[in-house]
């Protein structure tokens, strides 16, 4: 199961070497790194490619040896095409997307050439295959042009993919871009029902689509970026996705039909890594830089990895003194925490989240129901599915009020809906634990990466 050939020595004299290319944001780097650890454990040599901005940021955060990797696991960096910057903050997303889409193909091919030259000089295996983020499709094109096997990792949700895939159809039908900015607030997003998508709910509203449909500009970078990148996914021989069959069976069937490619579920990746990468593996400690420094705990809020305020002041100074006084002794404010570990603590009763996919899976793995306050991208779609399709979340409306949030939290903690959400998320947790095996990773290796 995914083990490397031993009887066919002529076929593989050295370990296979995979170049892994995540989109340069934490929500994408994290699952790609987790998949890299699984492939490493099964005998692959890994080259993990960060953009230069994140490469330098990582070294500043963790020191000059932070990216030394491990024997057979090395880090490389690629120029993303943006002007150099030493700012310790998330890069501008539209600018980064446009730049990677339009400038990175020749840089990627040059990186592979340099990697192979170094490998030959040092007696290491040359590159045999590529696993690229589904919104870094230049790497899939590059792999094809170089004659390398390739797969793509869709790091977001299956329901998010369905939303992005049908962006093109929304444009063709004249639904998007919006006629004017008034459509953002006049109820249009709620009243437009998209009932013609196979595998999706028949009452799916425009507001449930990933947020980049909320534009009046036909040349909007993010709208057109996702139309371009989703189409480019077909350059891969297979699609890998961080979910499990019991959660997303209907959507996965739809994905496979739309892309005409096999779909390999390898999630939830945090559990799959925990269950299958030995604790003493040299890659166990490799990670992403952080800013760390009974229902006794009712709610754990998280703003996600891209949300930010305009202030660099400590978190406590951004909150009303009355709030700090009222919660003294029963709250903790932190710029970072080990979220997955917190969500697995028996004292956590509900998770207030923007509904990013990694956070959603971590909450499912912890058996914690969610109160959802989506921010951007496919968080709106994730929120919709958690609320109406999976029954494990509640949604905070756009017009956020203290009283509304209190009602939702109390219902999630103490009410009948909360008990039902807890029952359902516990069932999904059990399915997630059962799914966290290497079987599909092994199939990916045998049927795609070594085929």
TrEMBL record:
Residues 18-140 form the Glycosyltransferase N-terminal domain. InterPro entries: Glyco_transf_N, UDP_glucos_trans, UDP_glycos_trans_CS. It is an enzyme of class 2 (transferase). Keywords: Glycosyltransferase, Transferase. GO terms for molecular function: quercetin 3-O-glucosyltransferase activity; quercetin 7-O-glucosyltransferase activity. Gene3D superfamilies: Glycogen Phosphorylase B. SUPFAM superfamilies: UDP-Glycosyltransferase/glycogen phosphorylase (SSF53756). Its EC number is 2.4.1.-. Belongs to the UDP-glycosyltransferase family. This is Glycosyltransferase.
């Amino acid at each position: 199961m995914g083990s490397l050939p031993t009887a066919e020595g002529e076929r593989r004299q050295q370990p296979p070497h995979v170049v892994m290319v995540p989109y340069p944001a934490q929500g994408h780097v994290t699952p790609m790194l987790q998949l890299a650890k699984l492939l490493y454990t099964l005998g692959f040599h890994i080259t993990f490619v960060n953009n230069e901005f994140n490469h330098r940021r990582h070294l500043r955060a963790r020191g000059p040896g932070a990216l030394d990797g491990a024997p057979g696991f090395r880090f490389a960096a690629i120029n993303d095409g943006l002007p150099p910057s030493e700012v310790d903050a998330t890069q501008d997303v539209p600018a980064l997307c446009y730049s990677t889409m339009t400038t990175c193909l020749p840089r990627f091919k040059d990186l592979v050439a340099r990697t192979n030259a170094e490998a030959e000089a040092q007696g290491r295996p040359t590159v045999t295959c590529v696993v690229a983020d589904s919104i870094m499709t230049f790497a899939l094109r590059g792999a094809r042009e170089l004659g390398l096997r390739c797969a793509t990792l869709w790091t977001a949700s299956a329901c998010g993919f369905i939303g992005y895939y049908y962006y093109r159809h929304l444009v063709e039908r004249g639904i998007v871009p919006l006629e004017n900015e008034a459509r953002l607030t006049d109820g249009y997003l709620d009243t437009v029902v998209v009932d013609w998508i196979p595998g999706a709910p028949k009452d799916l509203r425009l507001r449930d689509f990933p947020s980049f449909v909320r534009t009046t500009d036909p040349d909007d970078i993010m709208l057109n970026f996702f139309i371009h990148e989703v189409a480019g996914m077909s350059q891969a021989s297979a699609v890998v996705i961080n979910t499990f069959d019991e959660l997303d069976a209907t959507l996965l069937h739809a994905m496979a039909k739309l892309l005409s490619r096999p779909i390999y579920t390898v999630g939830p990746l945090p559990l799959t890594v925990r269950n299958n990468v030995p604790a003493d593996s040299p890659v166990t400690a490799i990670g992403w830089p952080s800013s760390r420094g009974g229902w006794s705990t009712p709610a754990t809020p998280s703003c996600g990895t891209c949300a930010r305020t305009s202030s660099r002041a400590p978190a406590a100074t951004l909150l009303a003194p009355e709030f700090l006084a009222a919660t003294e002794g029963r709250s903790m404010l932190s710029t970072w925490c080990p979220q997955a570990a917190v969500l697995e603590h028996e004292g956590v009763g509900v998770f207030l989240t923007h509904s990013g996919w990694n956070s959603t899976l971590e909450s499912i793995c912890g058996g914690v129901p969610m109160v959802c306050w989506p921010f951007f991208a496919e968080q709106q779609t994730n929120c919709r599915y958690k609320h109406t399709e999976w029954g494990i979340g509640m949604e905070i409306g756009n017009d956020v009020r203290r009283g509304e949030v209190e009602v939702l939290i109390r219902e999630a903690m103490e009410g009948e809906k909360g008990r039902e959400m807890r029952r359902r998320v516990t069932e999904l947790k059990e399915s997630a634990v059962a799914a966290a095996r290497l079987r599909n990773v092994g199939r990916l290796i045998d049927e795609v990466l070594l085929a």
